[in-house]
Amino acid sequence: MKLAAIDIGSNAARMQISTVLTVDGVVSFKKVEYVRFPLRLGHDVFTHGGLTTESVQRTVKLMQAYKLLMELHEVEAYMACATSAMREATNGREVVDLVRSRSGIDIQVIDGQREAELINNVVVLALDDRQTLHIDVGGGSTELNLYCNRQKITSRSFKLGSVRLLEGKETKGAWKKMQDWINENVDRSKPVTAVGTGGNISKLFNLVSKTSDTTTTLAEIIRMHDYIAEFSLEDRINKLRLNADRADVIVPAAEIYISVMQWAGATEITVPDLGLKDGILQLVYEQLT
After folding, report:
1. Would 168 be classed as within a structural domain?
2. Which pLDDT belongs to residue 134?
3. Which residue from 162, 171, 201, 221 could staple onto 249, CB 3.0 to 4.6 Å apart?
4. Number of other CB atoms surrounding residue 37 within 10 Å
5. Looking at the structure, do residues 153 and 81 belong to the same domain, yes or no?
6. Domain of 230: which CATH number?
7. pTM for this one?
8. CB burial string 91-127: b at 16+ within 10 A, e below
9. Which phi and psi angles does 72 have, rounded to 5°?
10. Could you tell me if 131 and 190 are in contact, meaning their C-beta atoms sit under 8 angstroms apart?
């Protein structure tokens, strides 16, 4: 059985098709297809309030391509979710209707709380008993989730993301609200560790020195942020070999991870290979069975 998850973010849209495997009663998902395309919807929405005609057309074409890929793979069930940019777009509902009529794909525009829940459902599998702050930085928003003994204590979504920062369109007072939330909820008398998800932290993790297969330090994230920031955008693409849609957002994204870790007093961060698409896949499987 094959399932698919489509994640339409503020920077890129991703589709993953996975085969469901069951061994000794334990279900897992094996990736058989993964496509990422830089739609950059957040550029339009955070600057102008809505999606341009060009962006709408690109979104429709991409969803048509995703639909064909799902048909070729004989996918049995899928879910498509759109996050910050689409939910803030003044013409978001019209785009959803157009995509449905042109491709047959039904996009669910989810709020920050629902986005965090879907990610948390899979991230919790990577946690231990320590106080843990999960940081998920997207193009348009950042979700923070606090855990203790693998149980979620509290969470909050902030209108602060890599694309939003790049465009200079962060919500007024967002940094202060995030810092205040951390000060109010993180118990500084106990050790705290961080878990990071999102495309930018995954890329940063690939570049830094590691303390284990899935863990690195705050000092390493800061070092890599400072190193990349020294390069021009052109050199990040040509010398560091970063994709164009990653080269411009990786520095502002790193600033969010660094700030949150410093405010929380976390000196290490674990970066599991998990994200919204994995949470969507799990939900699709649960609904199907």
Report:
1. yes
2. 95
3. 162
4. 17
5. no
6. 3.30.420.150
7. 0.87
8. bbeebbebbeeebebebebbebeebbbbbbbbbbebb
9. -65, -35
10. yes
